[in-house]
Amino acid sequence: MELKRPALVVYLMASSDAPDLAAAAVRGGATAIELGIPYSDPLADGPTIQRAAQRALDAGMTTAGAIAILAEINRRVDVPLVPMTYGAIVESFGLERFCAEAAAAGAEGLIVADVPPEESGALRAAASANGIDLIHLVAPTSREDRLQAAADASRGFVYLVAAMGTTGARESLDVRLDALIGRVRTAAGGTPVLAGFGISRPEQVAAILAAGADGVIVGSAAIDAADRGGAEALEVFVRNLASGLPA
Predict the structure, then answer these.
(1) What does the CA dihedral 195, 186, 151, 111 come to, rounded to 10 degrees?
(2) Average of pLDDT values for 131-153?
(3) CA geometry: angle at 216 spanning 210 and 220, to 5°?
């Protein structure tokens, strides 16, 4: 997966309006789209994404349906696409089948939030066989050995959790973030490091990039913007965030 740097990744939930929202986000300056595949027990997600997932499930969204949405997004935009979901979804669909169908739909990366690197061998092999980069998460509390294991197992980029807890927009970032970015960059070698969780304002984007990250991932705040005013509001929100990127 070739990411534009600095990267601005926008998370959307798989839904009937996701292709329109993805196109709007890219017009606003998004350099990649992360597409959530809804799951009934999303432990890493905060209230906004949980509500979006439940709406999608209530509307009848399935894994196959989400992959079809991914394919439609791929027809509408020319940026890397990264599905994000949970291990139970991938396992119930079948590792090889999931990776093959996601790749055919345009996926270049994959995040499975609750599969740790030491348990990801089969998934990583299935993803790699289909040209998909498997991406792992690291957190402010990650021990050095866990951080290194996640960095070693990640392809495409390492996903740095910029705040403790679940996803959701926050007023301030973790005070340890600068030091954490440095640790992750050292562990990651040449693999890009992107920070997510809690990012909602251009000054936060600028601060994260100034600390050495290669990009940011914005989820809950993007969904909130789309919920308020659809594709037009999302485009405005992303364009505002993109103002925090270096010229």
Answers:
(1) 10
(2) 93
(3) 135
Q: Which residues, 6 or more positions from 159, have their beta carbon under 8 angstroms from its beta carbon?
A: 111, 135, 136, 137, 138, 194, 196, 217
**Helices and strands, counts by H and E, the chain:** 10, 9
pLDDT-based confidence at 173, cuts 50/70/90?
Answer: low
Distance between CA atoms of residues 133 and 110, nearest Å: 6
pLDDT (0 to 100) of residue 82? 98
φ/ψ of residue 87, rounded to 5:
-60, -40
Whether 165 shows a pLDDT value over 70: the answer reads no
Three-class SS state of 109: strand
Q: Which domains does the chain have, with CATH numbers?
A: 7-242 (3.20.20.70)
Which residues have a catalytic role annotated? 34, 45
Considering only CA atoms, which of 88, 140, 138 is closest in space to residue 112?
88
Q: How deeply is 152 buried, as exposed, middle or buried, from its count of CB atoms within 10 A (0-12, 13-18, 19+)?
A: middle
pTM for the full predicted model: 0.93
As a whole number of angstroms, the distance between CA 57 and CA 52 comes to: 9
Alpha carbon of residue 58 to chain centroid: 23
pLDDT in tens, 61-120: 999 999 999 999 999 999 999 999 999 999 999 999 999 999 999 999 999 999 999 999
**Residues 194, 160 contacting (CB under 8 angstroms):** yes
